[in-house]
Every structure is written in C-alpha cells, then in structure tokens.
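Summary for the steering committee. One of the milestones for this cycle was to obtain a three-dimensional model of the protein with 3,4-dihydroxyphenylalanine bound, which we needed before selecting residues for the alanine scan. The sequence and ligand used are listed below.
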Amino acid sequence: MSLIQEIELLQAEASGEILSARSLADLDLVRGKFLGKKGQLTAILQSLKVLPPEEKRTVGQKANEFRAELEGQLLKIREEIEDRELQSKLSSHSIDALQPRQLETGRLHPISRVQYEVEDIFTSMGFSIMDGPEVETDENNFGALNFSDDHPARDMQDTVWTEDGNLLRTHTSSIQVRAMRILKPPFRIIAPGRCFRYEETDASHDNTFYQAEGMLVDRDVSVAHLIHVMKTFLSAFFEKEVRVRLRPGYFPFVEPGFELDINCLTCAGKGCPVCKHSGWLELLPCGLVHPNVLKKSGIDTKIFSGFAFGMGLSRLVMMRYGIEDIRHFMSGNLRFLNQF
Ligand code: DAH
C-alpha cells in the first residue's frame, strides 16, 4: 500500500471516530491517536524525511491537507459538544432571578486584625502610627542602627538585595530611623509592617513576616518605663494580667538590650508543653536606644533618651489563635483564612 493510500485510509478512520465522539474526552483521544507525539499521522510526517524529493512533495502535501482537515473537524465537533453541554446545563439549572444571591463577605486577614488591635492599644497610650517603605536603603536598615560594616546580619544570607544596592527591609527598625528624622522629640511611635529575610522556611520562619516596632524618645527614659509600657500593652492585648521578665539580649541599636519573656498563658507559669516546662515564653526583644543611634539621627543625647522594642506581629497572631505554622499566613489558602 502506498503512503497516499495509507493517508486516505487514516482520513476515513479519523472522520468516523470524530463523528462518533460524544464528549470532549473522546475528542482528546482521537487527537492523540492521530496527531499526538506517537500519533499515526505524526509518524507519517516524520517518515517524510527519508523519501525521495518528488514523493516527499506529494505525500507531504496530502499529509498536510489531512492534518488541516482533521484540526478543522476536531474544532467543529468540539464546539458542538460544548454547546450541547451548555444547553443541557442551562435546562437543568433554572435560575430564580428573585432569590437573593449568596454573596461571600470579605474579612480581615488575621494579621491585619491583630495589627489594628495593637495599634489601638498603643494609640490609647499616646503613640502615633508610623509607616515606612518595604524597600529600604542599607543606611536606614543597618547603618543608622549602629550595625558595624562587618555585622553578620548584613550578610547576604539574611537579606534580599536589589540590584541597585537597596534591600527589602529585614525588620521594622528601619522605621525608627525615619521617625527620628521626621519627628521632634519627645515622641512615641508604633510601626507595624512587613519584613523579609532570605532564609529557609519552617513552621516558625518564613521569608516574609510581620513585625511591629515601637519607639519612645523623651527626657530621662529608663528601663522602668519600658517594662511598664510593655506590661500595660500585653495585659490589654491578652486581656489578663501578664508578668514579664527581662534577660540580656544583644542588638547593636540598644544598650542595654533585652529579651522580654512573659509568663506562659497556657499554664499561668506552672510549666507545660507550650512553654517547654519553663513557665516562660520568649516574646520580644527590646532595650534602651543606643546613644549612637540617637546621635546619628540628630537627637541631643544630653537631653533625650529612649526605649525601643521589636514585636513579632506574626508570632503574636500565632499565640492569639493557636496557629502552629507561620507559613499559613502568606499561603492565600482560603480554608485557613475563612476561619477568622
Ligand atoms: N529589629 C530586631 C530584629 O528584627 C528586633 C529588635 C530588637 C527591635 C531590639 C528593637 C529592639 O526595637 O529594641 O531582630
């Protein structure tokens, strides 16, 4: 049998199969059988290479005509099937135009919700809300915060840099710097925002997360003021008396720097799996603003001093709702989000 005859046979076979196709899946099968990678027409087209020029031309032409015809038929029948499916759907679903439609109402993301709550509590204590950009300068994110040039946190591992030498802020502390430049002391600010780190993710680390920075600059500010404000905030937030303790912590922009812990809210400090039986939960780093930081931003340290803290907002939300994995927040997963 010549190749031309073979093509004619295939043509007849394909037409028959297309006409008896009842669904889109049937059509896909036909397409695969003739035009797929291992399809019969595909095989013929591939065999053209080895034919003498004259035969290549005639067989090639025939094969291409067949292909065009097949594509056309597939398309036409596809439209017919789709049309039929639509008609049958329309006739089986009647619409009552007078029924009220069930509209999905939107809601706040749990982080926004807690952010607004935190803002409310701090504004009730006289703090103003500050914002800053997510793309920052090296100076605002590190330099002005007393990070020496070789501080490990500047390492490329932790920071996402832009090609022009800026970065995605790694913490909201950059907003402290902006506040000191814009506001005249005394001032108190709370600055929630999204931060970014170049790191492996796990249940408690994500490359994108939220913090809320706080800063108060005034005359004669001491650790006692810091503790009082933190205790007042935490007791309002958790709606119960919260005890705190400070442990030394190092951050270049505070001196002294602390890790502030709260008594475990699950066991009231008696010891349980949540606090790993210590009775305490590590909550937020804080400290008295390093004089270098104040001076760099033009604040007279003979008159003014201050405290600052960096709250993990994502962490706070996890504690509030008992969320076990930080990666849920940015997942866009509605099954997670619809719970709030
Ligand atoms: N910016 C720090 C971080 O993300 C946290 C921090 C520590 C903020 C001490 C502060 C502070 O304001 O005083 O790791």
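Key point for the committee: Residues 171, 173, 213, 251, 254, 257, 285-287, 308-310 surround 3,4-dihydroxyphenylalanine (CB under 6 Å).
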